[in-house]
UniProtKB/TrEMBL annotation, chain A:
It comes from the Bacteria. GO terms for cellular component: plasma membrane. Pfam families: Gate. This is Spore maturation protein B. InterPro entries: Gate_dom, SpmB. Residues 47-147 form the Nucleoside transporter/FeoB GTPase Gate domain. It comes from Acetonema longum DSM 6540. The chain crosses the membrane at residues 12-29, 49-69, 89-111, 123-143, 155-176.
From TrEMBL, chain B:
This is Nucleoside recognition. Keywords: Membrane, Transmembrane, Transmembrane helix. The chain crosses the membrane at residues 12-32, 38-65, 77-95, 101-125, 146-166, 178-204. The lineage of its organism: Bacteria, Bacillati, Bacillota, Negativicutes, Acetonemataceae. The keyword Transmembrane helix applies. Residues 54-163 form the Nucleoside transporter/FeoB GTPase Gate domain. It holds the Pfam family Gate. Signal peptide: none annotated.
Amino acid sequence: MHILSEQFSVWAIPGLIFIILVVGVVRRVPVYEAFVEGAADGFQTAIRIMPYLIAMMVSINIFRFSGAFEACVNVIQPFLRHVGIPTDLVPLAIMRSLSGSGSLGIVSELFHTYGPDSLVGRIASTILASTDTTFYVLTVYFGAVGIRNARYAPLVGLCGDAAGFITSIYLCRLLFE
Amino acid sequence: MGLFQRSPVGGGIVVNHIWFLFMVVGIVYAAWHGQIGVVTQAAVTAAESAVALAFKLIGVMCLWLGLMKIAERAGMIRLFSVIIGPVVRMLFPSIPRNHPALGNIILTLSANLLGLGNAATPFGIKAMQQLQQLNSKPDVATEAMCTLLALCTTGFTLIPATMIALRSAAGSAAPADIVGVTVITSLVATFAALTADFVCRLLLTRGRR
C-alpha cells in the first residue's frame, strides 16, 4: 500500500500534464498559446488574494504568539480530558483550523515526543491528513473573488473539523489501542 | 461594511468578528503579561510570510490554470462534467445545467481526492470566480459558494501522500497504516460539513421568507 501510494503520487502530476497536452494537440488546440493565456490569469488571482492572506495570518499569529492561544488551550483541556481526549491533542485540535504550518509544527512535536506509531502519533496523523486549514481555505477562496461576508461558511467548516477530530480519536482508539 | 454588522444568519460567526477578536485578545493578553513586544514580531513575521505564500501561489496558479486552459479548449472539462456532473449537480442545486463552474468544482474535488493539494486550489478558485458571475451581491457569499467551501475545507482525501511521507521521515515503521482511518475520517468530516451546510441553508431561506 505504501509503495503503491508513493508511486501514484510520483506519477499523478506528470501523467495528468501528459494527457492534457496529448488531448490538446489531438483536438488541434494551440497548446503553447492556450497555456500562456490561462497562466496570465494565475498571476492576478494570486495578487488579489494577498491582502486577505496578510490580514488573516497577522491576526492568527498575534493570537498565537501572545500566549492567548495557550491560555485557551489550558481552559479547554480539563473539559476535553473529562471526555477521554488525550490532553496533548488539544492544541492540535484548535490549531488545525487556524494555521497549516502551526498544526504541522504541533504534529512533528508529537512525533518527536511519542513517536509516529504511538496512539497519539497516529491520531495526530489522521487529523492532519483528513481535514484542511479552514481559515486558510476560507481566506484564499473568498479573497480571490472579493467576498467579505462569508455568512455561515466558517461555521460549516468548523463543524467538519470537529467531526474529523472526534472521528479520528474514536477510530484510532478502536483500531490501534 | 461595518465591523460589527450583523450577519444575515442572525449573529452567526462572521470572519470580521473572529479577526477582530484574535487581534484584540492577542494584544491585550500580551500587554497583560508584560510581553507586548511579541505582538510586533508576530505581526511583521506573519505579514511577510503571507506575501511569500502568495508569491509561491503565483507559480502553482499559473501552471495549473495554463494547463486547464488547454484542457478547456480541448473540451476535456465539458466531457468531465457530463460524466460526473449528476452527483455534483445534486450538491449544487443553484448552479444552472452545463455551467462551466461545475467542471471546475469536479476538478477541485478530484484533485483533493487524489491528495494533489496544490492542484486543487487553482481549480477551486476558478470555480469560485465562475460562481461569482452568478452572484447578485458580489461581496456576500452565495449558497453554492458556501457548499463549495464546505467541500474544500474538509478536503476529502483518498491518498494522504504528504502525511505518509511525513510519517516516513519521522521514522515510522508503518507510515501508510493510517490510510484506512484517514479515508473514513475525512468521509465523516465531509459528510458532517455538508449536513451543516444543508441545515444552515434551510434555516437561512426560512428566515428570509
